Sequence to fold (279 residues):
Amino acid sequence: MTEFLLKKKTLIFFFIITLIINFGIKAYSYNNYNYYNINSNNELTIKSDEEVLFILDYSNSMNGRMGYTSKLIITIDILREILNKLENNIKVGLRIFGFSESSYIAENIESLYEKEICSASKLIAPISTNNKDYILNSFNRYTTRGASPIGFSLRNAVTNDFSKTAKMKHIILITDGVETCGDNPCEFIKEFIRTHHDYIIDVIGITIKENDYSQLKCLADYGNGNYYPVNNTDDFNKIFNTIKIVPPPAKTIHKPLTTEKNLSKSNITYKNYLFEFKD
Fold:
């Protein structure tokens, strides 16, 4: 009899716990919590022998607040910290999009204005060593404006911004939205990377809506990089406080080939993949 009561109490206990869990999930709105997890194993990494280009969103939505400050001001402040950590020998530059150099808006020439804002992308600090101060002084020369020509910016960046001799070209795209000018940046990068294996594209998405997530994640996936979601200042700090500056790899000494027939093949690491060969 005692054993029966114990089993009964146990079943009732698990039934109550199940009800509490189900009720809690339904009552807690999906939009009220962060549904992207920052993977601590994928720290943002900058290699000292690569060329680095920050592409920063200057569209109007960056004026929106994250906490007590605008997203743009928070981003610029954190970029200042990052740049101050970099050694002067690292080649770094800055491109912005969605900006305005003046307060002029062609309200009566709508088509011209639309064309203008969808080509508002500019390399304001060419990639170079000893470039930190120039970049830091460039932020205040521009104001936020309207559209987000991300595709246009990426096309111009890979065509014009990097030197021909760079071993690796590293783009760090920082935005709070997706393409708004009709381009398809994901499809462009997908095709571009097929023949350009010397590019890495990391994407930092600031307060990105659920339905906009896939386009930015796609850029990072096809661009051999990572997607970093930012929903508050703590997320931003997690990314940039763990940033790694990696020295160039030591030169490999190639040993002469052996003529042994039964030699086992060595493991090969390529990008993020490990190829293991069995004897």
User: Anything to note?
Assistant: Confidence is low (pLDDT under 50) at residues 17-41, 103-112, 252-279. The domain at 44-246 is CATH 3.40.50.410 (Rossmann fold). The chain has one domain: 44-246. Residues 2-27 form the longest helix (26 residues).
